[in-house]
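ok so i was messing around last nite and threw this chain in just to see what happens. nothing serious, just curious
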Amino acid sequence: MTTSRPLPLEVRGSTRLPLGMTPAQFLRDYWQKRPLLIRQAFPDFVSPIAPDDLAGLALEESALSRLIIHDEKRDRWQVKSGPLSEADFASTPDSNWTLLVQDVDKWDADVAALLQDFTFLPSWRLDDIMISYAEPGGGVGPHVDQYDVFLLQGLGQRHWAISTDPSAPKDFRPDVELKQLQHFDPDHEWLLEPGDMLYLPPGVPHDGVAFGGPCLTISVGMRAPSQAELTGDLADYLAERLPDELRYGDADLTPAKAVGEIDRAALARLRQAMPFAAGLDDATLADWFGRFITRYRNAQVPVPPDKPVTEAALAKQLDGGARLLRHPWARMAWTRVKRGATLFVNGHAYPTSAELAERMCSERELSPGKKLPAAEAALLLSLVNDGHLVVRKSRRR
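result:
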């Protein structure tokens, strides 16, 4: 009788296999199932952003940032949300503080380039890249995330502790603004070096603390809408589209046996009157989900140009070698339909071909060139005028 060996919690990556295994093996054995530490997932890794640049980004009005300071002696936590000021950083202690900045991939192209190593996952599953900088002892305390996250060490060292006990209590501390766990009993601990990466599925208690010196950690988070969010958005979607004449009906009504009772027959009619996901056809469900998932958790939206671009003007620019860049806040997905495809961008739907839809989702820069089919040219013009694509003229020597 043979017994299967337990899956390791620690493997070694390489340039060829950053996950320490093929993507198919990772998805089969670890994705949404168990944590995995990958030593040297990115050998000789160099952080794409410096701590000073991250701090500068935290000063921006529209950047999402937090400064967290821990008074270790009194175990008190101070949280300040951005935009931060230079005075905020000047008043920080020598240790036990951290800076968190979300959506850094929307601001920095070098950070966004890291996403190329995660293309084995659906692009619409990605939430953002959050980067944290911490002085020794800095962190956010033990907590639980409700989404998948890859924690890539960028600078310095960070000590990570996790609990793999599925029955571990997950009550929050009532005296802290942060959602910290009231009880945390780790059963695995590691010290991560630059290039090491820790994968955590949803619901795993964990705590990361800067060790020995300054520390920078890159968190690649995956979008995980709750059932409540999905149901609420789907209900709104259906409510906008169901005709008013569709109502609760009881043509089969018989004399009431008890005044005021909502009987089993009434409940059956209610289920028939509320056709949620189980009763939707594929086309309707796909149309709703495409709009929802490209709008979900998007902190900002692209702004249309001040003056609409004409078809002739865009054609002239493209003929002259202009490029079309995807706006950093433009989130895209697509689905096949009977006669082509539907491209979804930030909650809006655009009919197009499957080929162009896939290309739009996979490329951040387009150089269409000359003689575009009329339908494709019309789509690009719409995306430009809606702000999702930005025209960049070619550089002339």
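not much to say yet. The mean pLDDT is 91.
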